[in-house]
Amino acid sequence: MQFSFSTRVRQLKCLQLLALATIFALSACGDEVPALLPSLQPQPETEGLLGDECNTDEDCMAELRCNALSWQCKPPAPLPNLPSALSSVDEVDLGRHEVGPEGSEFLSVEVPEDALSLTLIADSPGAYYLWIDRVEDPAGKLPVNYDSDHSPVKSLGGSGAAVVQIPTSLRAKVNPGRYRFTVKSMSPIQTHLYALIKRGPKKNTGILNINCFLVGLPGLSANNAATHPEFQASLERVKLIYAQAGIIFGKVSYIDILGDDAAEFTVINSVSGVKSELNRMFQLSAKAPSRALNLFFVQEIQYAMDKFTILGIAGGAPGAGSLHGTEASGVAVTVANFSRSAENNGHVIAHEGGHYLGLKHVSESHGQEHDQIADTAECWGGRDGDQDGFVMPKECKGFGASNLMFWKTWPKSPVQLSPTQSYVMRRNPLVH
Asked: In which region does residue 109 sit, left (phi positive, over 0), alpha (psi from -120 to 50) or beta (all else)?
């Protein structure tokens, strides 16, 4: 996991609430409406016009569709155009190094003129806690400073792996030249260090390939996943959300996890700490098709301390990019709720995938912490009207509750991504 202890606790609290069942109560009146005199007969209402609220396409006029992001009648939205030129990723192996509480030696990597992003990864399976401590850019500035609350790029430590991505906002962009960085850990360990340099033309669209790992799921396998109605409906929801960012799906691969691995990981019982089941499952991505987002679908993800089920959890914010096989190389999603709500399941996948591609929560559950992106709305603790310690979606309408990366989902909510969030996602090394 790619979170500091305090951040991990907040993330798990977020996911605890996300995992609560959402119950919809529908009421209907069975009484007949008495016939009215002709002069008192109600006039037919004009419904389904542009901008009207809707639940399905049938609620809209023939030329309009119910937009499942805004839940309003709108013209059909075209998918983003395919990018005219694709990017590439240079994977720079910086070797193994001794790190500890005092920090590693300064390591360096040369960033070329056409670089779009720089991702630094410290891979140390089984390590208790490590982090990218400082990153110095070619001008001598520190876009990453683990000890500073004002660091332009937040470095979140983790067990087994640590990752930073530049950019994750507009506060720090990648520049050509030599970058230097150091890594620290709680105790002396050997760490394998990598740099991923995404290169290519600047563009507003991108392609995201997907690896779907199916971990011992009854009735769902690589043989039928491509035609499984609920499963595909959830992926279609993700496609719709990511299209806002100019990202379209490329190749979707389906991979069965069988045998002892399926038996061990189909129910995840530990999500943090040294050699947690979650982290070890993500290492199964080592032989997966490269440069694709690894989605691990399991029966259940439990958090033993509070005995609740987590719907989804990312290996990091950001994750390990296109480097497979690390303890931060994936997103885990439970299929326990798939038959109930493709809308919510797709939202969970898109939200956790957003973390993996570099996005933080626009507002944390207590309303005291927010992302570093200027064009996302913030919901502060003062909007906690019922004083329960959480800023809930109904309390944050107009203040970020409709953003994909709000800390909690809510049914039939508009789903938005800001221009800068979209920019960050497209700069991730996974997006072609």
From this structure: beta
